[in-house]
Model the fold of this input.
Amino acid sequence: NNLQIDGAIDEVNSPYPIDKKFEAFNFHVINVADGNDMAQLRAAFDEAKTVKGMPTAIIMKTVKGKGVSFMENSVSWHGVAPNEEEHAKAMQELQAQIIE
Done:
C-alpha cells in the first residue's frame, strides 16, 4: 500500500524493486496489479498452487484502509485500532459496498 508507520514508503525506506529481490533468491514471483480485487487475488493463488520446486512470492499493490472513508490511504491508521464509534462507521461503509 506504499505506506509505512512513518509515512510514504518512497520517503522513508523503499524496498523496491521487491519482485527482483525475491527473484534473486529463486522465488516464483506473481505481481498483482490490484491487491484489493478479489478476482486478481484468486488468479494469483491459483497460479501459486501450480508452482512446484520453488517458493512463491505474491506481491500486491493495495490501498490501505480501502473502502473506509476516514482510513483510506491514511498512514495515521498504521498500528492503531479504531474506537467503537469508528469501528461502527467503518463496518457501515464496508457493508454498503457489499450491497452495491
Residues 28 and 52 are 9 Å apart (CA to CA). The helical segments are 9-12, 18-24, 38-50, 84-99.
